[in-house]
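Annotators were shown the component list below and the corresponding predicted structure, then asked to write short factual statements about the assembly.
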Amino acid sequence: MAGARMTTAALSDRQRSWLRRAGPLLLVVVLVVVPLVFPESVNETIARIGVFAVAVLGLNVVMGYAGQVSLGQIFFLGLGAYVTAYGVSNDWNIVVVFVLACLIPAFVGLLVALAAARLGGLAIAMVTVALPIVGVPLAKRLSEFTGGSQGLSARFGDAPEWSGLYDDQWRLYLVLAIGGAVFLLTRNLVRGKYGRVLGIVKKNENVASSVGISPYRYKVLAFTLASLIGGVSGFLYMLVIQYTSPETMSFGHSIQLLAAMVIGGAASIVGSVLGGAYYVLVPQLTNLVDPSLTALLQGAVLLVVLFVLPGGLASLARPLGRGRRSRARHDPAPLITPSATTKSGSAADTPETERQGHP
Amino acid sequence: SREGGGDGATGAAASPGITDTTVRLGISTPLSGSTAGPGTCTVAGVKAYFGAKNAAGGVAFGDGKTRTVEIEALDDGYDPQRAKANYDSLKDDVFAMTAGLGTPTNRAWREAAIADEVPQVLVMTGDPLFSDTQESPWQLGFVPIYQNEGEAFGKLLVASGAPHKVAILSQNDDYGAGYVEGFKSAVEGAANIEIVDELTYEATDTSVDAQITQLSASGADVIFNAMSLVPLVVSALQKAQQLNWLPSWFLPSNTSSPGAVVEPGGGAAFPGIYSVSFAKAPASPAFAGDEDVQTYLAALKEHGDYPDAPAFPHCQWSWMVGATLEQAFTTMTEPTRDDFMRALRSIENFEAPLMLPGTAVTTTESGQPAVPTVVVQKYNGKGYDTVESLG
Amino acid sequence: MAAELAVQDVSLRFGGIEVLQEVSFTVEPGQIFGLVGPNGAGKTSLFNCISGHYRPTAGTVRIDGTPVQGARPATLARHGLARTFQHPALQLQETVLENVLLGAHTQLPGGPLAWSVRTRRTRRAEERFRGEALALLERNGLAWAAHLPADELSHGLHKGVELCRALLMKPRLLLLDEPAAGLPHTEVENLIATVRRLRAEDDITVVIVEHHMGLIAALTDRVVVLDHGRKLMEGTAAQAQSDPRVIEAYIGKDAADDVA
Amino acid sequence: MATFIQLIVDGLSTGSVYAAIALALVLVHQATGLINFAQGGMAVLAAYSAWWLLSRGVPLVLAISASVLLSFAFGAVVERWLMRRFERGDPDTAVVVTIGLLTLITGVCGWLFTYNNQQFPSLFSLDAVTFLGVSVSQRSIGTTVVIVVVMLLLQALFAGTKLGLALRAVAINPQSAAFSGLPVERLLMVGWGLAAALGAIAGALVAPQLTLTPGMLDNALVYALAAVILGGLSSPIGVVVAAWMIGVLENLAAVYVPLIGYDLKVAVPFILIFVVLVVRPQGLFGRKTVVRV
Amino acid sequence: MTLLELEDVTASYGPVQVLDGVSLSVPENGAVGILGANGAGKTTTLRAISATVRTGGRIVFDGEDIRGRRPDKVAALGIAHVPEGRGTFGDLTVRENLRVGAYLRKDRKGIESDIEYCLDLFPNLQDRIRSNASALSGGEQQMLAVGRAIMSKPRLLLLDEASLGLAPTTAKAVYDAIRRLRIESGIAMVVVEQNANLAFTVVDSATVLETGRSVLTGTSAELRGMDEIRRAYLGG
Ligand SMILES: Nc1ncnc2c1ncn2[C@@H]1O[C@H](COP(=O)(O)OP(=O)(O)OP(=O)(O)O)[C@@H](O)[C@H]1O
Ligand SMILES: Nc1ncnc2c1ncn2[C@@H]1O[C@H](COP(=O)(O)OP(=O)(O)OP(=O)(O)O)[C@@H](O)[C@H]1O
Ligand SMILES: [Mg+2]
Ligand SMILES: [Mg+2]
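Structure shown to annotators:
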């Protein structure tokens, strides 16, 4: 049986390495082609998905991976959007605007985290709830920066002449480039060292600290990163929607982001994309079915999806991986009868064949 | 938009959304969430109006063709982002966007509409920006800008000559601010008016008891109450009675419905409940026999799939929007968005159905929405009567 | 180089409960030290005071002379203190290997940025420690389980995984809380061998809490017996096992007779 | 001075609205260990069912009682056919499911009863009782009294009774509970049922004030959550006190702290939470949970 | 007559089958031990009986096949399972934990007196009666788990390493108590125990599991006699 196990392992290894090489290439090609082939409205939808995929990704970092319930993510999107709108309308250099749209939310996030991370579980949730809830009236009060409840419009990112592209194509490229970069970096981060750190901070702080991880520090880190990514999504929001107002960061949207994250799949990179798609497409879908039943349909869809896939849409991919893995088996030295091992051998193989049946 | 100029520019060639037999109109408005009530009305009215027209064969356009009018209404849940999405998905197959409720949700795609040269007209926001022809060539607001409503009541107050102490409670957004601004501009420098206290509340608050308590202490005999949320207005009226503070009360046009607000609030207890309006209130016995109202209510049931009695004035307003659009259609000589805007902007003193005497649709003056004027009304225990003076 | 641990008059109370009362002892560098005593005597709590998970209400804990009571556990871990838990705490969904790799955290170079761009350095380090982790698992007879999710391992094996996690930290001071609990006799003997090898090969100080007197006797140079938070006696395992107070409070008179 | 006291009284009656929902949240949390965002939605549904019965001419008290019973059944059904699937899994998922449930219920109410405001008669008259310059409506008094009673009942349930103990045990460790022969699944259903019934009472209490709409309790829910966290998840008394604190301090801050004012008064509960929980992580009255190493 | 009968029971976690044919028979008032290496399937066997793992084969208790019933229904038949590791209710006090154990009992007085019984069986618990179970030491929690099982006055007691983390004296006390329970209240039991010496003080027969199946069954005397058993489990 040992032999059998090795071959299956080797096989899946080969497949994996093949995917590892071909996968990204394929993805890049697709991303390059997509904006060129689709009509304007589709491109705009994809761009919008990109915006919220990034927002969900941020939420995933702090909540999915680090396990700190955050109901405030939309606030950082809003903040990023406001910073962008303000910068653009005072025509600052766009690169500067982008950097600020990342750093200012990150900094605010850091401050909040320094305080919030002292609290545990649900308390953090409540402190983060405060962000959108206080953020909306605050935005109204700071009307000289935010345009009050009438909001700010800012149009930028039109296609430059040389590109020969339509605006929507150009913007989509920008979204894909920036969003793609954020996704790639985050993906790398949540593997290896920091993935393990966030995982253990989520599950067991005592163990974390016993191996030299300061839970507080990494909670703050996760929260700050989430805010930064939120800021990026805010920048993209402004690029695509070109308007922001206090309603942008209303509490309800924060809740919907949370739902989108779980629907897509918590602690999953692919899940973040799926979550973004969910956030954008479901309202459009319900509008197709019956605009007057939005809430009813949205609720139904959410419940059905989770009922079928409690692990979120991303789990569609996962079980295959798990099911296929052949089960290594502990063969202790024969204590009683030598025959025991041979028995155990067959014993381990039976489920093997079984498993082929239902992966 | 990829069309860049938009094919409206090329003249005779028909714009998207219009054929020789049909024209499609788009609406993005809140049909879910906290503003779903009025939002639903903004659709029901237009639907009812053109539903009835279509049933009667359609609308006769200025170019001699008769077209049926199709309405494509989408829900934006008062979310700017979704409003923009709705616009994006509609702009290429509707002739014009109209009747949508909400300031941020309309602002979210205003610039895009200008860039794409898509009409965004007769929208339900008192935000002056939409009535500024320079800033917003492709826009036109319908309802009086908030300032006008506040101003009208202010004028009345000043005219009364008697000294008044005024307390102000307004919603903390452009809506409340607009009302207050208008009111203040009217009472500016008037000797007999003193504003003794001014407070705000958030649209998300569950109660304004504290505000009313604080204002009651100000000894005001008039409260200028710019609130857009029915429940809060009701509880405000009730609270004031409990504190037995009984000032004359001003309510905005969209939260003064006799049935939904004043009666439950026990409005009869106050010396006077004033509001501004330009539409006949179906609930008011004064108009019980009015055949405008009759046809309207019938159509609302039959074509607007809105069975109950309209709970928000927005239903009446969007009915008028329908009428105003028709008015524009009849003078439209080319099936283009440009010509439509021209036609729409050249309406004068059009007395749309349900309009109160003394009000009319006039689209020719810049800086003003389609309905520039309102009349002040006083609650009479069942409905409202127009009044020239206080008391 | 192995650490010296000095516990001095450490007391700990929770509300009314006196968990530890003026406990003192010193563990020489390189010693294998036993900590025994009845249930609720305060052994694990004492571990927690040393590893920084609890803050003693009084007294000092010194590692190589520097007082560490009240220091954060993470800090101590970075200074070469490793421990296992009485109730193994693993990432049940993660593979055994990932669990063990947690032990490498402090030795992995590079900050978030470096890891998100996957610099050569970080990839190299990750590879290297994977190798080390696998080697450790091999040594402890768990290589076969390296790629299984931890929740597919039986309870008794979790102890082994935790030990590997602690060892990957390359500690100078290692605290083991009941490492033999739930192991059958043969496995206990393997464990004894492992710890002996540990002491022989890498120079390290080990403190063991254990109820398995066989293991204590076989491994420890010295033992402290705790009872109701107080130090009952200190000496060699043999002395402890023959000390009437210890037999009375802990081992039980006829414990020997049971062993058939 | 009169104003000051009046503001406090107003705060208390607003706080009672939050408390009503908060109690239901506590009940569910004690019985299933999760936060039920749909709690408010279920209360609204109950209120609508009572309202519907009223419109069919059923007397108020009967209508409310009926809605309470219906809600109990509804809660149990929701647990059995929906939440059951998520109880063992990731709590975040379960919470999101309750969010979905909230959305669904809101949608259904909007669909069946429209988004218009419906008047809901009160058990208590609106007439104000006035003493030393402070006036408070009988409705607020009545509401508060009912809430205090419910609070004491809950406290008793969890502190003293076998059922309360069983509910908590199941929430803490379903498997061991099963090993001790506790009918885990039935208890979970009972827990949800009770919470829903309690929610129905809450709905009937606050509907007259907020006027019935599908989203009636959306804003109150946030305050209720705040009260729950502030008061301590395990303590009915705690959350009610917390809710009152929030209501009162909010008003006072709005009036007497210019920097805050009416627009930012919503920040008060959160500031409160932060200050309190840094000192007492378990909340004002919460039982401290030890996490052993 | 036999109280519990396992006829080649199989069990699996998800796709992973870990028991392939375990047979076992516990007479009324009898005590059977299960020995085996880590991962042999001892815990799973007990889980199979208390219906907390997917199973195949026949599990007959008191004449009826109970396989596939819900855990609480099985417990209601009088089968008490002391699970491996922490089986306590962390946020309940020691006393509350014990009361939960007695959930199925109606006799108030009996319950109170049994609580007292548990408390002087485990003096540690007496001292900590008011504190949350989660605060207890490992051993104290183990005591509490055993205590809770005793509180339910079961007909069949499933002990999964009841001595885990117990000091020698305490472990012995527990097993003495269990032996007494057998004699006084005629409780039957299945005992999983790494400390075989201890196990053999109560069980009259035992079965040895290896990689998910019984490879050897015999009376205590026989087994104690075998060198392999000595070598592997008794350290003799
Ligand atoms: N949740 C699970 N998923 C998959 N396999 C499991 C799971 N739990 C246990 N196993 C496997 O089932 C087999 C038997 O486990 P079990 O816990 O019954 O062993 P055990 O005899 O109790 O060992 P120990 O003495 O360590 O408690 C082991 O090989 C283990 O790997
Ligand atoms: N965080 C805490 N809160 C309250 N009491 C505690 C806490 N930690 C430990 N105790 C108490 O301190 C005493 C000692 O606990 P500790 O875990 O140190 O015992 P131990 O010697 O490890 O026992 P065992 O051999 O059973 O593990 C116990 O009575 C326990 O209840
Ligand atoms: Mg211990
Ligand atoms: Mg086991």
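Statements collected:
1. Chain A touches chain E at residues 323, 327, 329-332, 334-337, 339-340, 343-344, 347-348, 350-351, 354-355, 358 (CB under 8 Å).
2. Strands of chain A lie at 152-153, 243-244.
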